Amino acid sequence: MWGKSRGAIAAAVVLAVAAVAYVLISGASNSHSATTRRNAAPSFAPRAAAISREMLSGNAAAVRDAIAMPAGVHLDPAAVESLAHLKSLAFKLATFNEQSPSAAVVRAVVTDSSGARRTWTLDLIRVAGEWKVAQSTSGPS
Fold this sequence. Notes:
The chain is α+β, with helices and mostly antiparallel strands and 141 residues long. Helix content is 38%, strand content 31%. The chain has one domain (4-140): Nuclear Transport Factor 2, Chain: A (Roll). It has helices spanning 4-26, 41-56, 60-66, 77-84; strands at residues 88-100, 103-111, 117-127, 130-140. Strand 3 (117-127) and strand 4 form a beta hairpin.
């Protein structure tokens, strides 16, 4: 069984790879002002549910579908297993802010197997018309 710190490290590795992909995919197009933000939570709700299912599925292909990863990049099976051991990943839809047509930010509450909660801030990018997790930062709940 994964320890909390080992599981968190594995999950962080997956999201770090996604962060690199985010930088490569978005490039300079990510420079936009706060005035372009708009709340599009209702249209994001179905995708949020899908991302949550995919991230917690324990299936590498599903996890890969939830995150922005370049083709050919190795997805660590330990990271997939670590994510699968989380109890829940609940998006706070009211925090969804679309910053441009291809970038958004949203918060989610993650509950681990011990019941401890932590808030993640997820940067999203739109890939082929679908929101994917580009990177996350973690903080206390």
